[in-house]
Specification:
Elements (H helix, E strand, L loop, with lengths): L13 E2 L18 E5 L8 E5 L2 E7 L2 E7 L3 E5 L4 E5 L13 E5 L2 E5 L2 E2 L2 E2 L4 E5 L6 E5 L13 E5 L3 E8 L4 E9 L7 E3 L3 E2 L9 E4 L5 E4 L12 E6 L5 E5 L12 E5 L2 E5 L15 E5 L4 E4 L2 E2 L2 H5 L8 H5 L6 E5 L2 E9 L2 E10 L2 H7 L11 H7 L24 H18 L2 H18 L1 H13 L79
Parallel strand pairs: 18-22
Antiparallel strand pairs: 1-30, 2-3, 3-6, 4-5, 6-7, 8-9, 9-12, 10-11, 12-13, 14-15, 15-16, 16-17, 19-20, 20-21, 21-22, 23-24, 24-25, 25-26, 26-27, 28-29, 29-30
């Protein structure tokens, strides 16, 4: 279809419809939390799970410290558009912020973070929503692993591997990557040694998995406090070898403490902070990496070296002002991108935003560009349409020049490789729902064994290592004892970690940072466009 060749600018965000029955059902102001989309179950539609974060701040001009760190769980029903405070059974994780979360079917896995007592443990906490019963499980993974850390990122790769990257362990900023195979028990972390263009140490980056098995690491802050703008794709080849590949194209402004989520082949990046903790403003608050074409786009179209340095006339766009924040969280359901909370200057936010990435709405609301950077025929026709035909997600792009240095031969390969991705992405949630129903059927067949064990583990006082299955075909094994983790937990306060004495006021002057080379594709010219293999449990 011709629409698959169009490059659409970043969408606009608007307040999302949301309600609640009681005061506690509203998540309230917070930052440093996670927002995770969970697949539909047999009886419920997709939901967003909001966990943890800081609900208060302390300090003033000398620096802001996060406080009021919580372990509360809130669920947003996408169909009913209502928030609800959940009180899951089982042992909950400790209060934490700057942790990482990833969805595994109808479960959400949490790792790391930092709380009032310092680092969280290295254990995985699983929030199980199967059969619409919220239940906590604590999974102890023995042998070496990522270790306690915060400001890291984690996601499920190829629907099987939990991969965690970067962060800070209290001693140094990290660049390592670890993977856990959810189809094999007992669970073990494997330290990866990927080939290719390895990313530098960083924290407060994002790592988002594309549906075909690529993990995209974006932005972050290095050990010196310099914000980063580069992006790297992590792929697993058929020989089980992992490889990092530097993303092509001119990336948007450097940032950290931003949010990013995939919709199809498009990575949607919002908000973030720059040096000194000052929030990103104007056009830089939103960007999209089209991994199928290998180009970055903002609200005006292609991101180029010159457009990055120019101040846009849309700086006072209300939708852009809504996105001026950091330490927020985002998730996607179908074509919808959701954002909750964050920190804006010295103000904690409790707003809930949404944007639509569906091709139909974007074709109506945005100017579109062909792969060579010229306006598409459909875009030219839309520019002559009446105002009554414009929808709520209006963007007002200016004329731009082609910012991609991809040659025509490479472009042809990218378009060919990306065609299937768009088709697959549109059916992701339907497939997830069918898989969930199959899982429920499998569980019913073994209810006298597996489900009995899960119920008994939640009722027992020893709920540290329940027989929870992260993968539908994982082998259930006996419980394991918890090792001595005392030496791993650093009793350090939040002002040493989460704040690090950074000013968060938007009036702070931004310091200069070195210019990086953004278009280095000598080693892997088409790295991000390789088709990663799909993995199935045997």
């Amino acid at each position: 279809m011709g629409s698959k060749l169009w490059l659409v600018p970043a969408p606009s965000y608007l307040p999302a419809a949301a309600g609640w029955d009681a005061d506690e059902d509203s998540p309230g102001p917070r930052c440093g939390h996670t927002l995770t989309a969970v697949a539909p179950t047999r009886t419920r539609g997709p939901r967003l799970i909001l966990f943890g974060g800081a609900t208060a701040i302390e300090g003033g001009a000398s620096g802001i410290r996060l406080s009021g760190v919580t372990n509360s769980v809130h669920s947003y029903d996408v169909e009913s558009k209502k928030w609800c405070r959940m009180h899951p059974a089982g042992e909950p994780p400790s209060p934490r912020a700057a942790h990482a979360a990833a969805a595994v079917g109808t479960m959400v896995v949490f790792q790391g973070g930092i709380g009032p007592a310092g680092h969280s443990t290295d254990d995985l906490y699983v929030l199980d929503l199967t059969n619409d019963k919220f239940k906590w499980h604590r999974v102890v993974v023995q042998e070496p692993g990522p270790g306690p850390r915060y400001g890291h990122a984690m996601d499920l790769v190829a629907q099987r591997y939990l991969v965690t990257v970067s962060g800070n362990d209290g001693k140094e900023t990290l660049s390592d990557a670890w993977a856990l195979d959810t189809a094999k028990k007992p669970y073990r972390w494997q330290k990866l040694n990927p080939q290719g263009d390895k990313p530098s140490p960083r924290m407060y980056a994002t790592a988002s998995a594309r549906s075909d098995g690529m993990l995209l690491l974006c932005g972050g802050r290095d050990a010196s406090g310099t914000p980063l703008s580069d992006a790297y794709g992590l792929l697993m080849h058929t020989n089980c070898q992992w490889e990092w590949t530097l993303a092509p194209g001119v990336s948007p402004l450097p940032r950290y403490q931003h949010a990013a989520v995939f919709v199809g082949a498009r990575l949607h990046v919002t908000g973030g902070a720059v040096r000194g903790g000052r929030g990103i403003e104007g056009e830089g608050t939103v960007a999209v990496l089209d991994t199928a074409a290998g180009v970055w786009l903002d609200r005006n179209g292609f991101v180029t070296a010159s457009s990055r340095s120019q101040k846009s006339s849309n700086d006072h766009d209300t939708s852009l002002e809504l996105l001026r924040r950091c330490r927020h969280a985002s998730a996607s359901v179908g074509s919808q991108i959701y954002i909750y909370g964050g920190l804006k200057g010295d103000i904690l936010l409790d707003d809930f935003l949404v944007a639509d990435n569906s091709p139909f709405k974007l074709e109506i609301d945005s100017s579109m560009y062909n792969i060579d950077g010229t306006p598409s025929v459909a875009s030219q026709k839309l520019n002559h349409s009446s105002d009554s035909e414009q929808q709520s997600l209006d963007s007002k792009p200016e004329s731009v020049s082609a910012g991609s240095s991809l040659d025509q031969r490479s472009i042809a390969k990218l378009v060919e490789a990306s065609t299937a991705e768009y088709e697959v992405a549109s059916a992701v949630w339907q497939a997830a729902k069918e898989a969930s129903e199959r899982n429920v059927s499998d569980d019913n067949e073994t209810s006298s064994q597996t489900n009995g064990k899960l119920e008994s583990s939640s009722d027992s006082t020893d709920a540290l290592a329940p027989d929870v299955r992260l993968h539908p075909r994982a082998v259930v094994v006996a419980k394991e004892t918890v090792g001595n983790l005392g030496g791993l937990i650093r009793q350090l306060s939040l002002d040493q970690f989460e704040n690090e004495s950074r000013r968060m006021y938007p009036t702070n002057a931004d310091q200069s940072y070195p210019t990086r080379k953004y278009l280095n594709r000598q080693k892997s010219p088409l790295g991000l466009h390789k088709k990663a293999s799909h993995f199935h449990a045997s």
